[in-house]
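Why does residue order matter? Because the sequence determines the fold. Keep that principle in mind as you read this record.
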Amino acid sequence: MEKNPKIAPYYVRLASYRFKAIFLGKTKPVDAEIIQSMQRVLTLNQRDPNQMARLVDSVVLIKVGQRQVWMPIQRNLLPQLHKEVSKGQKITLYCAFLNEHTTKNQLFNNFLISEFVTE
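Structure:
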């Protein structure tokens, strides 16, 4: 970095978070680029990257504070989320945070929903 500051740094981060949010009721397929980013984060954290393709195929629209965010959700949780949570309902989310900043200055902040609790 010191020798060539024009080259963007590459870094990843894996963490866990719990926070309150509002389910906005929308679901769509996850982009392949998101899965690939999460796989790279897992690889660099010495975890099995192939589990992402088995775990995630959708994202759901969530409101956190004043922002709307598409968040990946574990495949087995999606039917339960739609069954137990109404559009506009407050929930507590338990998420794995997979962060990647690429050398092309792309930033991926993915909160993978691993569990939820209704209010």
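Strands lie at 11-29, 56-64, 67-74, 90-101, 107-118.
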